[in-house]
Amino acid sequence: EVQLVESGGGLVQPGGSLRLSCRGSGFTFSDHYIDWVRQAPGKGLEWVGRSRNKANRYSTEYAASVKGRFILSRDVSNDSVFLQMNSLKTEDTAVYFCARDLQESPDHWGQGTLVAVSS
Amino acid sequence: DIQMTQSPSSLSASVGDRVTITCRASQGIRNDLGWYQQKPGKAPKRLIYVASSLQSGVPSRFSGSGSGTEFTLTISSLQPEDFATYFCLQHNNYPLTFGGGTKVEIK
Asked: Nearest residue of B to residue A45 by CA position?
């Protein structure tokens, strides 16, 4: 069974940092792109970034709203993707989901982890 | 960025009704579009990929159509478990962009 599990969310002050983790199981993790998508309270979905697969050298893409502040990386030995979030702003408050891509769009999603940025 | 305009933003319907939701892209995206269902407090679930392919395990009452700039999601006979919010997502170009969502409520 395909599973993705996020962790690392929590409360952080503006300007602070947080690292989210997404661990996959039930599939060959290195074969797949992994997307991060966030949802602010009561709002719609916003794509945050993408970690491509091994064949594409785990290259990355970011939304303009997070570029230069957020960094994606992979731990290939533990089938995990990390989202390092720096210089956090109140508008980054959201539930963060990771999702596996199939046919270049997310098919399986994790349950999400809440990030709250507040003083 | 490609803007995805989804309509309506909400609708009220009865069990058994046929429901249609539309997404319009600000530029052509071929068939690089997916449809998702989200229930409160849950992760989105993919229903349709590449505009018209049914995700495995999704009931056949869901269907998608369109290409280029106009896409539709149709639920042929609404069931109680279908009351949820629906989103489209374009993956033709970065950044990936979602429609604003359609909340389907009980009439």
From this structure: B98
